[in-house]
Design a protein that fits this description.
It is a single chain. By secondary structure, the protein is α/β, with parallel strands linked by helices. Helices cover 38% and strands 17% of the residues. It has 17 helices and 22 strands. The strands form five sheets. Strands 1, 2, 7, 8, 9, 10, 18 and 19 form an eight-stranded mixed β-sheet that branches. Strands 16-12-15-14-13-4-5-21 form an eight-stranded mixed β-sheet, covered by helices on one side.
C-alpha cells in the first residue's frame, strides 16, 4: 500500500533523524534500545509525553510476560541482569474454577509446581521504563520528555515530518527517514490512514491495585497441607492467577512494588459493563461471582481504578514500504488472557529493526513488508478469535483445561521458536519451517471448532484437582525441544515436524475425551488401536463418515502413550452424575 504524502512542506525540517519514535512506554523504549544495540550510530529520537523518572509501580496494564517476551527482554535486549534483580520471576499462568465454591482448596487448578527453565517476569513498569530511559540516554538516543505529538506528515520522498510540542508548550518539527507510532490507544497513524479495524463483539476490562500482597496461598488455611504441598514454597503468588467463570476471568498479578494488580475481564453478552464500571460496583461484582476473593479484599487500601471498554481491535497494516510502522497498542490488541501484549511488541520491534537495517543496506523488499504485515496481523487476529470464542466455556474446567493445554503446546511448539531463533526474520528459514508445519493451521482451526462445540455440550463427566501442565510428559518434551536459541535450520525443520506429529496425536486425544464427556455410547465405534483423521474431529456423529474421520491421512502410530497421559489428568466426577470411562485397551 502506498500512502499519499501528508502536507505540502518542501524544506526539510531540522534536525533530521534516521528514526523518530512517537511515544515512549514499553513499546517505544524497547524499540529505541533494540535499534541502538543493532546499530550504535543510528540517529534515534523518542518523543515521550512522560518525564523521567516515572513513578515506580506505574499503573499500566502489561505487567505480565510469558517466555517469548522474557527471552526478548533478557536476551535480545540484553537486560537479563536487570530483569532478574528488579522484577519478580513469573510462575507461569495459573487457573482456578468454581468461583462460588467456599472452600478454595476444592477448586480445580491448572498451574505449575515449579519454575520452568526459560524465565518470564512480572514487570514493574515504572522500574523497567526508568532503566530503559537511562540505558537509551547513555546509548545516544535523543529523548524529548514531556513531548506531545500533534501531527505526523508522511512524505517518503523527502522525509517524514513530525510536529510536536515540547514540555514548555513550544511547537517543534523534526524530519525522519522512518517514523514509528508507539502512542498506544491514541492509534494516531491507524486513524490518520484509515487503517483501524474494529472487531465485532464486546470485551471489557477494569483493573485496580491494592496495597500489599493479595496471595491466593492465603485463601487456603495452612492446615490444608496437601493443597499447599502441590506447589511448594508458596509460589502461586508469583503466577498470573486467573479466576475463571462463564464469560469472565479475574486476574491477580503480583507487582515488584509489593502491591497487587486485580482485574476483571468480561464478554458483554454475559456481563454488562455497567455492573462493574467503577470501584464500588466492581467489588460488588466480585462478591457475587467470587466471594472468597472479595473476602480477601476486605480492609485493603485501593490505590487506583482504570476501565477500558471494547479493548480489542485490529488493523489493515502495521508496516509500510514508505518507512513507517506502528507498534504495541498503536498497532493492534487482542486480549490479556495469555499475557500476549509484550510478545507482539517483541515481534513488531524486531521487524522494525530488521526493516530499518534492510533499508540502510538498500534491500528493503515489498515482499518482506507484505509478509511481516500478514505475520503480525494474523497473529493478533488468531489470538482474538481463539481467546474470545472461549469466553462461553471459560466456566467449564474440563473443556477449558484441555483448551489451555492445546494452546500451551501450540505456543511453545509453533510461536516461541519464531522468537528464540528469529525464524520470521529470515526468508529462507521461514519458508523451510513453514513447509515442515504442513496442514497445522487447518488442524488448529478444526480443534478450535471442536472445543467450541464441546463447550456448548459438556456434561462434566470428568474432573480434576490439579494439573501441572509443564510436567505432562509430551508437553514438557515440546517445551524442552523448542525453547532453545541458536539452532540450524535443519534442526528447526525437524522440531516443527515433531511438533506437528504431537499436535496430531493430541487432537485425537482431545476428541476422544470430548466423546467420553458428551456421548460415551459412541466410544464403541473406536476400536483399539485407535487412529483417526485429526483434521476431521468433531462432535456431529452424522458427519464422521462424510468428513473422513475413519480414513486417516497419515500412517497410523501408537496413540496409546499420549492418550494415557491425557486421560491420567482427569478422574470421574463422583457427584450426582456418573462418569463413563473410555473403553480402550491401552
Amino acid at each position: 500500500m502506498n500512502e499519499r504524502s501528508q502536507g505540502d512542506w518542501i524544506e526539510r525540517a531540522e534536525p533530521h533523524y534516521d528514526v523518530v519514535i512517537c511515544g515512549g512506554g514499553l513499546a517505544g523504549s524497547t524499540l529505541a534500545r533494540q535499534l541502538k544495540l543493532t546499530s550504535s550510530d543510528i540517529a534515534v529520537l523518542m518523543l515521550d509525553k512522560l518525564e523521567y523518572p516515572v513513578p515506580v509501580a506505574a499503573h499500566k496494564v502489561g505487567e505480565s510476560s510469558v517466555e517469548i517476551a522474557g527471552f526478548y527482554f533478557a536476551d535480545v535486549l540484553r537486560l537479563r541482569a536487570h530483569m532478574d534483580a528488579h522484577h519478580l520471576p513469573k510462575h507461569g499462568l495459573r487457573y482456578f474454577w468454581n468461583g462460588g465454591e467456599s472452600d478454595f482448596a476444592r477448586r480445580p487448578e491448572v498451574g505449575l509446581s515449579d519454575y520452568t527453565p526459560c524465565p518470564s517476569y512480572q514487570i514493574d513498569r515504572g522500574k523497567f521504563e526508568n532503566e530503559l530511559f537511562a540505558l537509551n540516554t547513555a546509548a545516544g538516543v535523543t529523548i524529548a520528555q514531556g513531548a506531545s505529538v500533534e501531527d505526523i506528515r508522511l512524505n517518503p520522498a523527502a522525509g517524514h515530518e513530525v510536529v510536536y510540542r515540547d514540555a514548555g508548550g513550544i511547537e517543534r518539527r523534526v524530519s525522519a527517514r522512518w517514523v514509528t507510532d508507539a502512542m498506544g490507544r491514541r492509534l494516531f497513524l491507524q486513524r490518520k490512514l484509515d487503517l483501524h479495524r474494529e472487531i465485532p463483539g464486546g470485551f471489557n476490562a477494569v483493573w485496580f491495585r491494592v496495597r500489599g500482597q493479595l496471595d491466593v496461598g492465603d485463601f487456603v488455611p495452612a492446615g490444608q497441607e496437601e493443597w499447599h504441598a502441590r506447589v511448594p514454597g508458596r509460589k502461586r503468588y508469583h503466577s498470573t492467577n486467573h479466576l475463571m467463570g462463564q464469560g469472565y476471568w479475574i486476574w491477580l498479578i503480583p507487582l515488584g512494588s509489593g502491591n497487587t494488580s486485580v482485574g476483571i475481564v468480561t464478554e458483554e453478552r454475559f456481563h454488562d459493563f455497567a455492573q462493574f464500571a467503577d470501584l464500588e460496583r466492581a467489588l460488588q461484582w466480585i462478591a457475587e461471582h467470587d466471594p472468597a476473593t472479595r473476602a480477601q479484599l476486605d480492609g485493603r487500601e485501593f490505590m487506583d481504578f482504570v476501565s477500558v471498554r471494547k479493548f480489542n481491535y485490529s488493523t489493515a497494516q502495521v508496516f509500510s514500504l514508505d518507512r513507517w510502522a506502528c507498534i504495541g497498542e498503536a498497532a493492534a490488541f487482542s486480549d490479556p488472557f495469555y499475557s500476549p501484549g509484550s510478545n507482539l511488541i517483541a515481534f513488531e520491534n524486531s521487524i522494525v529493526t530488521h526493516l530499518v537495517g534492510q533499508d540502510s543496506a538498500g534491500r528493503l523488499s515489498e515482499d518482506d513488508v507484505r509478509f511481516f504485515n500478514e505475520f503480525v496481523i494474523s497473529h493478533n487476529d488468531w489470538l482474538d478469535y481463539n481467546i474470545h470464542s472461549a469466553y462461553a466455556y471459560f466456566g467449564e474446567p474440563l473443556v477449558m483445561s484441555m483448551a489451555f493445554l492445546w494452546d500451551a503446546v501450540v505456543g511453545w511448539g509453533v510461536a516461541a521458536p519464531q522468537m528464540f531463533n528469529s525464524i520470521y526474520l529470515d526468508r529462507g528459514t521461514r519458508a523451510k519451517v513453514h513447509g515442515a508445519l504442513g496442514d497445522f493451521y487447518a488442524l488448529a482451526l478444526q480443534v478450535k471448532r471442536l472445543l467450541i462445540d464441546w463447550g456448548q455440550s459438556s456434561e462434566g463427566r470428568l474432573t480434576f484437582d490439579f494439573i501441572d501442565y509443564y510436567n505432562v510428559p509430551f508437553v514438557n518434551q515440546v517445551y524442552a525441544r523448542n525453547l532453545r536459541p541458536g539452532k540450524p535450520v535443519e534442526e528447526l525443520v525437524a522440531d516443527h515436524r515433531a511438533t506437528l506429529r504431537t499436535l496430531e496425536e493430541f487432537a485425537q486425544a482431545i476428541f476422544l475425551v470430548a466423546i467420553e464427556d458428551t456421548m460415551p455410547w459412541q466410544l464403541s465405534r473406536f476400536r483399539d488401536p485407535v487412529w483417526i483423521d485429526a483434521w476431521a474431529v468433531g462432535l456431529d456423529p452424522g458427519r464422521w463418515e462424510a468428513d473422513g474421520l475413519f480414513r486417516p491421512r497419515t500412517e497410523p502410530r501408537d496413540l496409546g502413550p499420549l492418550l494415557a497421559q491425557v486421560k491420567g489428568l482427569y478422574r470421574p466426577r463422583t457427584s450426582e452424575r456418573e462418569s463413563v470411562a473410555i473403553d480402550l485397551d491401552l
